[in-house]
Design a protein that fits this description.
Number of helices of chain C: 13
Structural class of chain A: mainly alpha
Strand order of the largest sheet of chain A: 2-3
Chains: A mainly alpha (294), B alpha/beta (440), C mainly alpha (267)
Number of strands of chain C: 1
Shape of chain A: globular
CATH architecture of the largest domain in chain A: Orthogonal Bundle
Helix content of chain C: over 70%
CATH topology of the largest domain in chain C: MetI-like fold
Oligomer: heterotrimer
Number of domains of chain A: 2
Strand content of chain C: under 5%
Radius of gyration of chain A: 24 Å
Helix content of chain A: over 70%
Number of domains of chain C: 2
CATH superfamily of the largest domain in chain C: MetI-like
Order of helices and strands of chain C: HHHHEHHHHHHHHH
CATH class of the largest domain in chain A: Mainly Alpha
Chain lengths: 294, 440, 267
């Protein structure tokens, strides 16, 4: 690292920074401020009509809306179950693949590929499988498990869970690959030492693998939380938030409020709330991780 | 070094795209340049592969040929979300197209106040040959409460009734289509007995549930009910309105709809109907093409139309029907030659000649009373629909058309679908009424 | 072994839907419902032709390529310049800038949808592809700067020193020394952001309505809305949409995975 010697140097450095700064400020920072501003206003979406300042009114009406509370609950469930299943299953897959059995490359590819597909395609794909007369129910009836067949995406008991399943399907390969890389950083000697101490595979897993992967695992969980909060495409394509708002998330709700019902202020308020939730959860998880380490 | 060249190459591409991008923007602002061609932009739902969309595009081409100083930009979208998004961004940027379409009537108030929609009355006055050919009921539908004048030109209309498969009904032992509600219920039981779906409904496409309720509402409370609900003289939680919701629920509880109705899209249930797995479907004239096409269904000669059954207790509403009316609106801020041409294009799209083409080639109905149709080229089904459409004594389109709140379209439809996943009619009514109360 | 069974079951869950879609893409409408799991009777390549030509998937495909490539190009140039400064120069605002850019990672695209819509309206940026690209770049800056900076920090300073002795200026050090050495991280960031831009639907949904300019992810949505009942071509459209990401993965498999891991671990 070197220090900036003089003003001329400083100017040169600035040139390096300016393009990124301009783009970032214009397209990220200013809209961010705009979002807060809009969240405290009312606008009908027609050019030239006034933007009225209304203070906290939008936030109050949002929190009073049962549709929003339901979407928050859905989001909570999604985050909870995603974290619960994403990382552990990804870890198991990573460990299994790390053992380098025959054909491990094939498996690695199979699990990773869904993560790079556009979520709209993924959503459509699974809609056809889960729809009431779709292939899953068809399959169940051919193998005689008729009783299990249900309308997966509209049954209040299964709707959100089905979407959570698809979300996990679409993301697990990503975490698996990260964990896999992490696994390769654990030196074999540690495992050998544990084996000498008489540890079984089980014990090795829990007492060696997991502790050594802690930082990576916590990072995966963090990314998972933020990623799940942002889910939009999936819901939009599979259920449009229905039936009757059953599977809405704050993200889809926000889109409808702003762009279908012309409540741009309310929509913005929801957008800001989503950001706050992301912040809180991120800082919260970091804090929990730190506590656990101590 | 190679990397830098590669990067530069791509950057150039990026700059090239900028040129493309800004060329597009400059198009929007060049309206007043005299040596440029006059641009007419349209945003409608007529897009995609259907016959009627093709006729639409043909007419646009004819207009361009007739006026070489005009260039037509057709931004129409077939997909509802894309259409809505486009419309909303246009409204937000103040760049409404010359000819467009907005669903609903009372919600037009805000747009009329801002001068965005042209009042058609003077145009109707000035060209009676054209305007008097338009069906009066359809024209009057677009008189917006609270404002003087008419704000939409009806371009497509037709009865939204029950299309039924005669063969399937006969198989179930039904010789005549049920005329009353009680007869309908009896028919549903018979159809269930032969293991077919009585009514093909796909409530994932919420409009299907909405249309069913509309039909029931108009037969129970008359076609003026939407106006009463819209100006708040009637509430959704009033007992007679809740009754209309209960009738929908009754059908659901009877098993009239396919399994998992709330999760099925309209495409899927239309396919079921075409395959003969369902006996009836409530839809409009836009599907006549499919119902009479040998390629699409083996029942192309067996699909008939009937009005939605009426309630014996309310014979006065026997011919109060739901019809579809699709309008064209003209941008209220046009001036000069552009305004002239746009109005001319509008008339061309809704002329008696156009009506004839739509009817004969696309089996689509334009609300004109001066069409000279070649009966030989029209399917019997189409002729029946036109005939039935003409017998309505009261017409309404969607119940939320006269509600000033833009959110009512989704709110009403979602709450109706809510009844298919556990809501009671009372709960549905409360949900809808709450939305109205919230906005006060 | 138990592990193998576990893997195979999981693989079925993962591969099954994709195979199903692929098979369905070559069947006719009726066949898709009557015979969902079997091989197609006739391999209808016509579905692909319909999707590509009539439904404009071909145009959307090209658009997406242009958009994604431009996004990556601009992103790499712009973020690597920042990374160089942050990694190699010690000055007061260094830490602040790092955090400033990093915070952006937490902002969901949704939060700024409304102000962006307003800006698009006020400045008439509808259908402006360049604005769309810059939006993508802005959102990719945090991750990109983060990864590139950590990587550059790990580069041995001696090479730089040598260049300085030879009289090289900052820009030359950046372009001749740092960039070439940072290629692994650049590849990863490029691939990731290419995919991100390819798959993004939210921003185009909002302000690209000109059919000739739509990217493929949005095109797929439109296809479903406009012709949703043509199931065969719809499945074909899905396959076309995922085709490029899939090919990129096959070609750059190692880079994608190692870079992902590297960025993650260093973080």
């Amino acid at each position: 690292m070197r220090k900036i010697k003089n003003k001329k140097d400083g100017t040169k450095i600035l040139m390096f920074l300016i393009p990124a700064l301009v783009i970032y400020i214009l397209f990220m920072v200013i809209p961010m401020i705009g979002a807060v501003f809009f969240s405290a206003s009312e606008w009908s979406g027609i050019k030239g009509t006034p933007i009225d300042f209304v203070g906290f009114k939008n936030y109050i009406s949002v929190f009073q809306s049962s549709a929003f509370i339901l979407s928050l609950k859905n989001m909570g469930r999604m985050v909870f179950f995603s974290v619960l299943f994403h990382t552990p299953i990804a870890l198991l897959l990573a460990v299994a693949i790390n053992a380098k059995f025959r054909g491990y490359r094939f498996f690695k590819a199979v699990f990773f590929v869904p993560t790079i597909f556009p979520l709209t395609a993924v959503g459509l794909l699974w809609y056809f499988i889960f729809m009431p007369n779709g292939s899953l129910n068809h399959l169940l009836s051919t193998i005689g498990l008729d009783s299990l067949a249900t309308s997966w995406l509209i049954n209040p008991g299964t709707a959100i869970n089905t979407i959570i399943f698809v979300n996990i399907w679409a993301g697990i390969g990503y975490y698996m690959v990260i964990l896999l890389a992490g696994l390769t950083t654990i030196p074999n000697e540690v495992y050998e030492a544990a084996a000498i101490d008489g540890a079984s595979s089980f014990k090795k897993f829990f007492h060696v693998t997991i502790p050594m992967l802690k930082p990576i695992i916590s990072m995966c969980i963090l990314m998972d939380i933020i990623g799940t909060i942002k889910v939009f495409d999936l819901i939009f394509v599979m259920t449009e938030g229905g039936p009757n708002g059953l599977t809405n998330l704050p993200t889809t709700l926000m889109y409808y409020e702003a762009f279908r019902y012309d409540n741009y202020g309310v929509g913005s308020a929801i957008g800001v709330i989503i950001l706050l939730i992301a912040l809180v959860l991120t800082l919260g998880s970091k804090w929990i991780m730190r506590k656990k380490e101590a | 070094m190679k990397k830098i060249i590669a990067l530069l190459l791509v950057l150039t591409m990026g700059i090239g795209l900028t040129a493309c991008g800004s060329k597009d923007t400059s198009k929007d602002t060049s309206k007043d340049s005299k040596d440029e061609k006059i641009e007419i932009r349209l945003l409608t739902r007529s897009a995609g592969p259907s016959m009627s969309a093709q006729i639409f595009r043909d007419i646009l081409k004819d207009f361009e040929e007739k006026h070489p100083d005009v260039v037509i930009i057709d931004e129409s979208q077939g997909d509802e979300s894309s259409f809505n998004n486009k419309l909303k961004t246009d409204i937000a940027s103040g760049t409404l197209p010359n000819i467009f379409r907005i669903q609903g009537v009372s919600n037009l108030g805000e747009y009329i106040k801002n001068g965005m929609i042209m009042n058609m009355d003077p145009i109707y006055e000035a060209d009676k040959e054209w305007s008097q050919g338009l069906t009066e009921g359809a024209v009057n539908y677009y008189k917006v409460p609270g404002f003087d004048g008419s704000y939409g030109v009806p371009a497509e209309s037709g009865l939204i009734g029950v299309f039924y498969n005669e063969v399937v009904l006969k198989e179930a032992g039904i010789d005549k289509f049920p005329e009353t509600w009680n007869e309908l219920k009896a028919a549903i039981e018979k159809i269930k007995a032969i293991n077919k779906t009585p009514i093909a409904l796909g409530a994932k496409s919420t409009y299907m549930a909405g249309h069913l309720h509309n039909n029931i509402l108009y037969k129970w409370l008359g076609a003026d009910a939407p106006k009463a609900l819209g100006d708040r003289t009637m509430k959704w939680t009033d007992s007679e309105v809740v009754e209309t919701l209960s009738y929908v629920k009754e059908l659901y509880d009877m098993g009239a709809f396919p399994e998992g109705v709330a999760g099925l899209s309209d495409d899927i249930v239309i396919t079921q109907f075409l395959k003969g797995e369902a006996a009836m479907i409530i839809t409009g004239p836009w599907n006549i093409g499919k119902f009479t096409s040998e390629e699409e269904t083996e029942y192309y000669n067996d699909i008939k139309i009937a009005k939605f059954p009426y309630f014996e207790e309310k014979p006065q509403f026997k011919d109060h029907d739901m019809q579809s009316i699709n309008p064209f609106m003209i941008n209220g801020k046009l001036e000069g030659k552009e305004k002239e041409y746009t109005i001319e294009l509008m008339k061309m799209l809704t002329s008696a000649d156009a009506a004839k083409r739509y009817a004969e080639e696309a089996q689509s109905i334009m609300p004109r009373n001066d069409m000279v149709l070649d009966e030989g080229s029209l399917s019997k089904l189409f002729q029946d629909v036109v005939e039935l459409s003409g017998t309505s004594t009261g017409i309404a389109v969607d119940v939320f058309d006269f509600d000033p709140l833009a959110s009512m379209q989704d709110r009403t439809r979602n709450s109706i679908v809510g009844m298919f996943v556990g809501n009671t009619p009372e709960q549905a009514a409360q949900e809808i009424q709450a939305e109205i109360d919230k906005s006060k | 072994m138990g592990v193998y069974i576990f893997l195979i079951v999981m693989a079925l869950v993962f591969v099954g839907p994709m195979v199903f879609t692929l098979l369905s893409s070559m069947k006719g409408n009726v066949e898709i419902f009557d015979n969902p799991f079997g091989l197609p009777e006739k391999f209808l390549i016509s579905n692909y032709v319909t999707a590509w030509k009539e439904a404009n998937m071909g145009t959307y495909f090209v658009n997406s390529i242009l958009i994604s490539v431009s996004t990556v190009a601009i992103l790499i140039v712009v973020s690597s310049m920042v990374a160089y400064v942050l990694a190699r120069f010690d000055f007061k605002l260094n830490k602040f800038l790092g955090i400033f850019f990093l915070l952006g990672m937490m902002i969901p695209m949704h939060t700024i949808l409304v102000p962006v819509a307003y800006i698009i309206g006020s400045f008439n940026l509808k259908n402006n592809i360049f604005a769309l690209i810059l939006l993508y770049v802005a959102f990719s800056l945090p991750f990109s700067i983060f990864v590139l900076t950590s990587f550059m920090k790990g580069i041995n300073a001696s090479l730089e020193e040598a260049a300085i002795i030879d009289g090289a200026g900052y820009f030359q050090i950046y372009s001749r020394v740092m960039l070439p050495l940072t290629v692994p991280a650049i590849s990863t960031v490029s691939i990731f952001n290419f995919l991100g831009a390819w798959n993004n639907v939210l921003f185009p949904l909002l302000f690209i309505n000109n059919n000739k300019l739509k990217p493929i992810s949005l095109g797929l949505l439109n296809f479903n809305g406009e012709r949703g009942s043509e199931y065969g071509p719809l499945m074909a459209a899905i396959i076309i949409t995922v085709f490029v990401p899939f090919v990129i993965y096959l070609l750059f498999q190692e880079k994608v995975e190692s870079g992902l891991a590297a960025g993650a671990i260093k973080g």
